[in-house]
Amino acid sequence: MRIAIVSNKRSGLGGMEAVFRTVMQELGRNQDEVKMFLMGGSLDKDWLQDIDHVEIGDQRTDNALKRRYSFTLPLFRQIRQYKPDVIIGCDPNVVCYCKWMMRIMNRKTPVGSWVHNELSTIWKVQLLKYADFHLSISKGIAEQIRNVVGSGSNNKIFVTHNPVDVEVREVARPEVPTFLYIGRLENRQKRVRDLIEALAKLEGEWKAVIVGDGPDREEVYNLAESYGMNERMEWMGWRKNPWSEIPRASALVLTSNFEGFPLVLLEAMARGIPCLSTDCQHGPAEIVIPESNGWLVSVGDVEGLAATMQQIINHPEQLPDPQFVKESVRKFSIANVVNNIRGIIDRELQLKISS
After folding, report:
1. Three-state SS for 42?
2. CATH 3.40.50.2000 assigned to 178-331
3. Domain locations along the chain
4. What pTM does this model have?
5. Per-residue DSSP letter, 290
6. C-alpha dihedral sign at 240, 179, 235, 254
7. Buried b vs exposed e over 308-331: b needs ≥16 C-beta within 10 Å?
8. How many whole angstroms separate alpha carbon 270 and alpha carbon 274?
9. Residues 6+ apart with CB under 8 A from 350
10. Do the two domains 2-163+333-354 and 178-331 of this chain adopt the same fold?
11. Domain Glycosyl transferase family: where (predicted)?
12. pLDDT by residue for the chain (355 residues), tens digit each?
């Protein structure tokens, strides 16, 4: 099967790129031919190594019309030359472009959607109606898609989740309770300020490791400094492969206001690390089993966040068993998720051919 994955411009530094790379490599191992088409390219290129891809268009012009044509016409030529059996669009506008291209070429090639963000953050979501089917990374986003495209029999929405490598080294438990945060340092979505406020309420001996960078780094760093906590905290900055530098952790903490399907929770649990997360839309409730592999608190509940962290400090011996934590995310293994995605694509292709 020849598969085209088409996306708008990427930073190259996020979880979405990691998912693209993982899925493409696994499909390749299954003898499928997969190519990534990036409209606007990628700022960081490292994630594109060893995967078939092409960067399309020019972001340098300030003229929106010229910029659009610099994407769409070259994409048309590239897709026509590649002749994919199926196209997966990762943004609503891309889905619309690709569907119209197939109509112009008079081809029955199915076009699916595969969005990776909460729909309220995505531009022109109504264009998802052009897709023949939808791959959804969480149940919550599947419901959002259903609200956009309707619930008719032709609007096929499949929950596929994101894959994680479950065959990784376990991260040891530390002697001093240590809380881990990995992600962007910003407050609109990630609410990192809530983490700092919760840490300030803790008593006893503890440490925190903060991995990441972002627009609110200085604000949250200064907040921690104002509480006199930075001697307990390690600010590691952004790391391309953070897990290779995390020797020990008691729990990973996620304080987000919203998510698509937080890969960092899966990555932590695959290493035996329980996770304390806000019960935000969307994803954490599909991953975290309260009191078994982690804990859920309401978004913005700093008191609840601090109370759970204090319990970890007071009773580290009661942390969930690392092996159970690891096993709890095995259903999200690369093989399981990619086999599911591949099966959906294959069925849709056969339906299109027979119609």
Report:
1. strand
2. yes
3. 2-163+333-354, 178-331
4. 0.90
5. B
6. positive
7. bbbebbeebeebbebeebbebbee
8. 9
9. none
10. yes
11. 174-318
12. 999 999 998 988 888 899 999 999 999 998 999 999 999 889 899 999 999 999 997 555 555 555 556 688 889 999 999 999 999 999 999 999 999 999 999 998 999 999 998 898 888 999 999 999 999 999 999 999 999 998 765 679 999 999 999 999 999 999 999 999 999 999 999 999 999 999 999 999 999 999 999 999 999 999 999 999 999 999 999 998 899 999 899 999 999 999 989 999 999 999 999 999 999 989 999 999 998 999 999 999 999 999 999 999 999 999 999 999 999 999 999 999 999 999 999 998 888 777 6
Closest CA to 57 of 77, 46, 34, 73: 73
| Angle at alpha carbon of residue 324, lines to 320 and 329, rounded to 5° | 115
Structure tokens belonging to residue 76:
């048309």
Query: Which superfamily does 2-163+333-354 belong to?
Result: Glycogen Phosphorylase B; (3.40.50.2000)
Closest CA to 88 of 110, 71, 69, 67: 110
Q: Is 180 left (phi over 0), alpha (psi -120 to 50) or beta?
A: beta
